[in-house]
Specification:
heterodimer, A: 451 residues, alpha/beta, TIM Barrel, six-stranded parallel beta sheet, 18 helices, 9 strands, B: 209 residues, Methyltransferase, Methionine Synthase (B12-binding Domains), Chain A, domain 1, Rossmann fold, 2 domains, five-stranded parallel beta sheet
Chain lengths: 451, 209
């Protein structure tokens, strides 16, 4: 008899999650129909290669290769970012063509492009996007601010969910401002007075916000259909989507989203204890965000874009005190839930390698962005973790195919030695020469074979 | 008591530094002396950042303490007490890019090292750089950018400066997340710096100070 999920060890859960990734389902829950036996074989080989690279138990047949662009597929297809954010079907077709033209072993899907209409309906304020603060041909960009005030730590610590629904959402979505009036739901206890709690839902501004929420939901569904359709179509052709979901290091959640860079840095001095408490308070939520998504998608790898822990951003002492403890807890929680944390160490992580290697072996995948020394990363972090990266954006954009091949060779010879490495670009890029991207993929497939 | 404010500020002791200034003003200490100590304190912060004793949070926090001190001193200061600056540097994040953290660090470090910085902000059109060079006669221009789109914007900016006939009058440095020697060559800049300290070194080499 099969073991129940709750009774499985972390190892068994991870294995079960990989098996689910190896046996994808269609939206109705039936086994996915591949377009040909060759496509099915390709899909399974691709997933197995990544699994072997991550688990560090078995040498993969060759170094896996992927491409992780931000807006580049849009430019490659001749579209503007604005079109890509609003025309879901056209974007889906363009993304599929991009993958079929370059044939990486796996891809990160097309969710990063949209959905523009959804952001408009809710009047999203955390980002500027084409037509809303940036020009049509440019990528959306974050508008950092203090969406949580310095004196609101207690509210976040006491009840993170209510803080998000009643305080954060009304600030980042203009259309949801009236949610500031929403009731405190644990007040609904007895028949006496229940109805008082619902009065806000009768007020015209709240009703307008609820209407916006319903419209946004309908738009999100439409968009998700397109994005899911891309993953499904590519899977039937043999190209698996690598991501099961995403979450963040708690320090970045507070630093990027809630307090802003300056806010969190000043808090490290003025109210360090509150900050530490808040980091702890949101940790379980960050774990659940990843585990829940992985379960829903049937894929174990959970992306974690890292921002404010990079070299130079914090001292080692500050990293060890404020960043690492809860980041590590989130990774351990994900691993406990059968997931593979996939942190993307943006910037350099050279000074952090010794600290972050303290994680279970064969359970994580680290994207090392341009500026980390991959030879050292392999020596230190590579003992326990699979590394992914780190072809520089400048080389993909301005170099020649020969430059790319030379660099890829170096990476394969060093970081790729003995497995535990996935070839990829180092940072999310908007601009590149197609022949350079092609060279990275083709050369890895040829030269990266393990003998 | 001389030097105490320098130490409090450079050690990032916010409440103590503010209390010290308040008391000193009450005791009739010359605000210009306090301003001098404040500058010296910020200079030490800059040095500690350059030697990697301090990191970004420390720099950001020192800026907050500085703001507090200056607010207290301002009503007491006579006009025209601003110390002489070493030279002018124009800084901005290039067109299309709205990232400011890296650019702000460079502005900060140039400022505490004695340069007068014209901060043009983010998403700065090439023409704005050209106009500012003309208006100020600045000899150094710093272009910041985080996204790959910045490569082209930097090139466009350098070309606009060239077309305006100003290329020989200025030195241009570039920097930001993905900027390296290859991008410098592409953009036609004079140098690239990998961090804020290098920007200061470059400015020093070109302007002196």
């Amino acid at each position: 008899m099969e073991k129940k999920w709750e009774e499985m060890s972390a190892d068994e859960k991870q294995e079960a999650m990989f098996q689910r990734w190896l046996s994808p389902k269609d939206p109705e829950g039936n086994d996915l129909k591949f377009q040909s036996p060759e496509a099915e074989k390709l899909y399974k080989e691709n997933v197995t290669r990544i699994k072997d690279a991550i688990q560090l138990k078995k040498l993969p047949d060759r170094v896996p290769v992927t491409i992780i662009p931000s807006m580049w597929p849009v430019f490659y297809s001749g579209m503007t970012v604005q079109e890509a954010m609003y025309d879901y079907d056209k974007t889906s077709k363009a993304f599929i063509k991009f993958i079929l033209d370059f044939e990486p072993d796996t891809h990160m899907g097309s969710a990063q492009f949209g959905p523009g209409k959804f952001f408009e309906i809710l009047d999203y304020r955390l980002y500027a996007w084409p037509g809303h603060g940036v020009s049509p041909e440019h990528s959306y960009q974050c508008l950092e601010g203090e969406y949580m005030k310095a004196d609101e730590y207690d509210a976040l610590i006491d009840d993170p969910s209510s803080f998000f629904s009643n305080v954060y959402l009304p600030r980042v979505f203009g259309a949801l401002e009236p949610f500031q009036m929403l009731p405190f739901l644990p007040g609904i206890l007895e028949i006496y007075g229940v109805a008082f709690n619902f009065i806000p839902y009768g007020l015209p501004p709240v009703q307008a916000a609820l209407k916006a929420l319903m419209d946004a939901g309908a738009e999100a569904l439409k968009w998700a259909g397109a994005v899911g359709g891309v993953d499904g179509e590519l899977a039937t052709l043999g190209f698996p989507q690598i991501l099961g979901g995403f979450t963040k290091a708690p320090f970045d959640t507070i630093g990027d989203t809630l307090r802003g860079t300056k806010g969190i840095m000043v808090d490290m001095y003025r109210q360090p204890d509150k900050l530490l408490q808040a980091l702890d308070a949101i940790t379980p939520h960050m774990i659940q965000m990843g585990v829940g998504a992985a379960q829903m998608m049937g894929r174990p790898i959970i992306f974690m874009p890292l921002h404010k822990g990079a070299d130079g951003f914090l001292s080692d002492e500050q990293f060890k005190k404020f960043y690492w403890p809860t980041f590590r807890k989130v990774m351990l929680g994900l691993i406990e839930g059968g997931c593979v944390p996939f942190p993307a160490a943006e910037g350099g992580y050279n000074s952090r390698l010794k600290i972050v290697q303290d994680i279970p072996k064969g359970k994580t995948l680290w994207m090392m962005i341009d500026q980390t020394d991959m030879v050292r990363a392999k020596e230190i972090l590579g003992k326990n973790a699979c590394l992914l990266g780190n072809m520089p954006s400048s080389m993909l954009n301005l170099g020649t195919p020969q430059d790319v091949k030379d660099h890829a060779k170096k990476l394969i010879d060093t970081a790729g030695k003995g497995g535990g490495f996935i070839m990829s670009n180092g940072a999310f890029f908007d601009h590149a020469k197609p022949e350079n991207v092609k060279a990275m993929v083709d050369f890895t497939k040829e030269y990266g074979v393990y003998k | 008591m001389s030097g105490e404010l320098v130490k409090l500020l450079s050690d990032l002791k916010e409440p103590e530094a503010l209390a010290f200034v308040e008391k000193a003003l009450g005791d009739g200490v010359d605000p210009a002396d306090l301003l001098g100590e404040t500058k010296e304190g910020m200079n030490i912060v800059g040095q500690r950042f350059a030697s990697q004793e301090y990191f970004i949070p420390d720099l950001v926090f020192s800026g907050e303490i500085l703001k507090g001190i200056v607010q207290m001193l301002e009503p007491h200061l006579k006009k025209g007490e601003e110390a002489e600056r070493l030279g002018k540097v124009i800084m901005g994040t290039v067109a299309g890019d709205i990232h400011d953290i890296g650019k702000d660090l460079v502005v900060f470090m140039l400022d505490v090292n004695g340069y007068e910085v014209m901060d043009l902000g983010t998403d700065v059109p090439a023409q704005k750089f050209v106009d500012t060079i003309r208006e100020t006669g600045s000899k150094v221009v710093g272009l910041s950018g985080f996204l790959t789109l910045a490569f082209q914007s930097m090139k466009d900016t350098v070309e606009a400066i060239n077309k305006a006939g100003l290329r020989d009058d200025v030195k241009i440095m570039i920097g930001g997340g993905q900027i390296d020697e290859q991008v410098r060559g592409f953009a036609g800049a004079d140098a690239y710096g990998k961090d804020a300290m290098e920007a200061v070194k470059l400015a020093r080499g070109w302007i002196g100070g």
